[in-house]
Amino acid sequence: MSPYRSLLAPMLSYLDAIDDGDPARPIVVVLAEFVPRHWWDATLHNQTALRLKLALFTRPNTSVIDVPYHLGDAEDFVDLCLGMVEPAGGEVHCLGRPWRGQGYHAMLAHRSRIGSLVGAQSWPGHVPVAEMVVAPRLYHTGETEETVLAEATDLARRFGLPGLPTGAHTTVRLPDLARAACVAAFIGTPELVVIRDRLLEGMAELGTPMAQAIGGVQDRGGAVLWLLRSLAAPAARSVAADHVLRLRDRSLAPMGRRP
């Protein structure tokens, strides 16, 4: 099993290291937990947070704070595409298979075929950007870290970076974060890429790299789903859409093609 699949053990080791340095120092762990729209969706979410809370419950000098958050229509739609939530009715099929009824490991394998670009601004502030870019690829494949880093660095240059940013996201310029998020979404050979990033939309200089990356997915027979606030978004002007739909009132409606 890839070491990148484990969260609990590294977290506890990190907290133990803090204790070793200052045993009297209080530790506060903040867990952001998604609040599903329906109570029956709760079993699909926050399982990692639950395991963390159980492990930290008896740990001395440690407090846990839950921060619930709710999503809007666009975020809900992205989660539906990624199999993170159940629809109120019907089924969601992704890459020819329904999400409903798949076991945990089957869902992980299915998600390994999907790239997502949903905003690097939400990445954990203490984790290096380079690690956030390559970790999913290492998580889902048996490739070596050296191989994945080389591929990510080459892709980063195509998006206008000199290489992968090495600092945490709080030390990296927002435009460079958007470029790094593009690398994370398109690295490997995803069959589906889901994009929703407001910062990216306004970056006209990424129009050509985005069109090329999207074209590469399409050439492999894949698809890209890009949720935009406006069809005039500078970053999307060079992209030729096969279908244009409006997400409104929890439904999709056809729109006229962009001129």
Description:
The structure is a single chain. The protein has 2 domains: 1-70, no CATH class; 71-254, P-loop containing nucleotide triphosphate hydrolases (Rossmann fold). The chain contains 9 helices and 9 strands. It has 259 residues and is α/β, with parallel strands linked by helices. The mean pLDDT is 81. The chain is globular, with a radius of gyration of 20 Å. It is 37% helix and 15% strand.
In short:
It is built from nine helices and nine strands. With 259 residues, it is α/β, with parallel strands linked by helices.
Overall outline: globular
Question: Main sheet?
Answer: 3 strands, parallel
CA radius of gyration: 20 Å
Query: From the helix content, strand content and strand pairing, which structural class follows?
Result: alpha/beta
- Report mean pLDDT, rounded to a whole number: 81
Flag low-confidence runs: none
Order of helices and strands: HEHEHEEHEHHHEHHEEE
Secondary structure: number of strands: 9
CATH class of the largest domain: Alpha Beta
- CATH topology name of the largest domain, in short, is Rossmann fold
> What is the helical fraction, as a range of percent?
25-40%
Distance N to C terminus: 49 Å
CATH architecture call of the largest domain: 3-Layer(aba) Sandwich
**Tally of separate domains:** 2
Q: Helix count?
A: 9
The fourth-level CATH homologous superfamily of the largest domain is: P-loop containing nucleotide triphosphate hydrolases
What percent of residues are in strands? 15-25%
**Looking across the biggest beta sheet, what order are the strands in?**
5-6-7
